[in-house]
């Protein structure tokens, strides 16, 4: 897959409402290979693996070019060794809301306690229905980029957020 990725990102309010609303969930581990001008991600998701290259964000962090290719688990394990700063470990829950699917990520390790949701759109102005558990929008806030969470994990700055999100 390649093309423009348009997404909005939100914090999820405390509680497990997203878990009971989910129609699917999977375990994800991902790391980042250093690159200038792009984000290069290696991801395993249950028994599949992917190499993703993302360009710089525009429009307040909402839009960017994305290229993604499925790779073998063996290739992913080798590429993960090239990643700097460790690996992001999380569980992703898929929640249908209107005609969209929200991806809700519950983080582990040094990012334990952080729960975020993303919704992909076909147009920057496309309307969508937010589930009740969706809170403050953080689109474009670099603190919430997975690649940033490796160097500045949630455990370090969690107290900067309102209580309902930590």
TrEMBL record:
Which InterPro entries did the record assign? CYTH-like_dom_sf, CYTH_domain, NeuTTM/CthTTM-like
| Record's signal peptide | none
SUPFAM superfamilies named among the record's database cross-references: CYTH-like phosphatases
Organism's domain of life? Answer: Bacteria
What CDD domains does its record include?
A: CYTH-like_CthTTM-like_1
Q: Which Pfam families match?
A: CYTH (PF01928)
Q: Where is the CYTH domain?
A: 3-151
Q: Which residues form the active site?
A: 32
PANTHER family (alphabetical): SLR0698 PROTEIN (PTHR40114)
Protein known as: CYTH domain-containing protein
Q: Which organism is it from?
A: Segatella hominis
